[in-house]
Amino acid sequence: MTLTTDHSKAELESENLRFGPARAGESRATRFASFDVAAHPVPTGREEEWRFSPLRALLPLFQAEETTVSADHVSYDVDEVEGIEIGQLGASEAPRHSALVPEDLIAARTAQLCANALHLRARRGTEADAPAIVEITGHDASVVAHGAVVLETEESSQATFVLNHTGSASYAQNVEMILGDNSRMTVISLQDWDDDAVHVATHVARLGRDATLKHIVVSLGGKAVRVNSTTRFAAPGAEVEQIGLYFSDAHQHLEHRLFVDHAAPKCTSNVTYKGALQGKAARSVWIGDVLIRAEAEGTETYEVNRNLVLTEGARADSVPNLEIETGEIEGAGHAAATGRFDDEQLFYLRSRGIPEIEARRLVVRGFFAELIQKIDVPSIREHLTASIETELARSMN
Fold first, then answer.
1. Is the Cβ–Cβ distance between 33 and 102 less than 8 Å?
2. Number of Cβ atoms within 10 Å of the Cβ of 105
3. CB 136 within 8 A of CB 106
4. Could you tell me which of 322, 195, 214, 316 has the C-alpha nearest to residue 255?
5. How far apart are CA 208 and CA 241, in angstroms?
6. Strand runs labelled E in the chain
């Protein structure tokens, strides 16, 4: 069975039109945010923001005991790349915390505990000649570790940053992406943890005038992974493309929550997330919130989420939301679908002599191919292709 929602531009052109589940009368624009740890309660699971999340697995990240920022538990290794400066920022050093204001307890505690953040910066007018790769390796999941990263492209600069997460960890992370006017940034966050890892990340981007961000999130490993991505347009003419790819196995929870805040006119956002699930209690959650404020005239936005369920016992939740405060937009829409193999595709392939198992593999490869080709780092494309082949071998042999 396939469930789909799709809305055309014409359906969305009336003022103050809102889509998505009611949030007790609260606009997404007014959600509480604070650096004060005491102001954020431990969630119960009844809150809209946490009702899909595995709170039992995440519980250690909400607790104050047994936390650290020590490299003994999670270490960083950063490649030196020409055109990228590597440093640190204290809690009050700009541009740290110019984009992020924590909306939950985990992000607030991470901001409090991390006295310094890793800072990668492309200076004004420079173009990095290669991706800057940050290897983030977990060594011990028994203690919660915290980390903070600030990625910056100054005016008219261009850079690609890769955050590669591997190993065993219980890890809370804040990532800020600061884009100067007319700059271009690509961020690839790869969650390829061991099976026991728990990871909650808050990614927040602030885009200047005519800035362009490509934000790619790939989640393959870990026991429970939750990535919250927020994009805020600070000036006109900016553009963001958000791409997500995930593959959930038995008893694995992969959750992605996005918020695109159109607070400036003539900005563009496009979101495409795709996931596959296999095995008992495999779970994925995708929440896509888009807010078009009254001042954001000329906005163009679209978001889509597709899920392919490969075996019995897997579950995918997909909730796209649009909140629109002006009718003066270029276009806005969303779509979500969850289904099994396309019988027509399988019939077409099998009628040409392709065995069923290989036909199913071809369908899944085609499902992900569009997104993989949008990743500009060849080594990551190759890694993802190999990882998907490994996942398919588990369920189809």
1. yes
2. 20
3. no
4. 316
5. 15
6. 5-6, 67-68, 74-78, 85-90, 116-122, 132-153, 158-179, 184-191, 198-207, 212-219, 224-233, 239-248, 253-262, 268-277, 283-292, 300-309, 315-324, 331-339
Q: Is the separation of the CB atoms in 313 and 280 below 8 Å?
A: yes
In our burial notation (b when 16+ CB lie closer than 10 A, e otherwise), range 124-151 reads eebebeebbbbebbbeebebbbbbbbbb
Give the C-alpha distances (Å, rounded to integers) separating 213 from 106, 112, 151: 25, 27, 12
Q: Which residue has the tokens 């955050």?
A: 163
Q: Token pair of 201, please?
A: 């990340």
The tokens for 224 are 């429970």
Rounded Cα distance, 254 and 257, in Å: 10
| pTM for this predicted structure | 0.90
Q: What sign has the CA pseudo-torsion 336, 27, 256, 264?
A: positive
pLDDT in tens, 352-365: 777 767 777 788 88
Q: Which residues of the chain have pLDDT under 50?
A: 1-24
Yes or no: say if 181 and 206 are a contact pair by the CB < 8 Å rule: no
Please answer whether residues 200 and 170 qualify as being in contact, where contact means their C-beta atoms are separated by less than 8 angstroms: no
CA–CA gap between residue 56 and residue 258 (Å, rounded):
23
Structure tokens at 63: 């607790």
Give the per-residue pLDDT at 4. 32
Tokens found for residue 206: 């602030």
* C-alpha to C-alpha distance for 185 and 156, rounded to whole angstroms: 10
- Distance (Å, rounded) from C-alpha 358 to C-alpha 356? 6
Q: Which residues pair with 178 in a beta bridge?
A: 152, 206
User: If you ran DSSP here, which 8-state letter would residue 372 be given?
Assistant: H
Mean pLDDT of the residues in the chain: 88
Give the pLDDT confidence of 343-393 residue by residue, as tens digits. 676 666 667 777 767 777 788 888 899 899 999 899 999 988 888 888 777
Tell me, what amino acid is at 251?
H
Count the Cβ atoms, other than its own, within 10 Å of residue 68: 14
Residue 310 carries which side chain, given as an amino acid letter? L
- Give me the torsion for CA of 29, 34, 39, 41, rounded to 10°: 60
Q: At what angle do helices 55-62 and 105-113 cross, to 10 degrees?
A: 30
pLDDT of residue 200: 98
- In what helix (H) or strand (E) does residue 392 lie, and over which residues does it extend? helix 378-396
**Distances, alpha carbon 112 to alpha carbons 34, 49, 59, 136, in Å:** 11, 22, 18, 20
Domain ranges of the chain: 5-341, 342-397
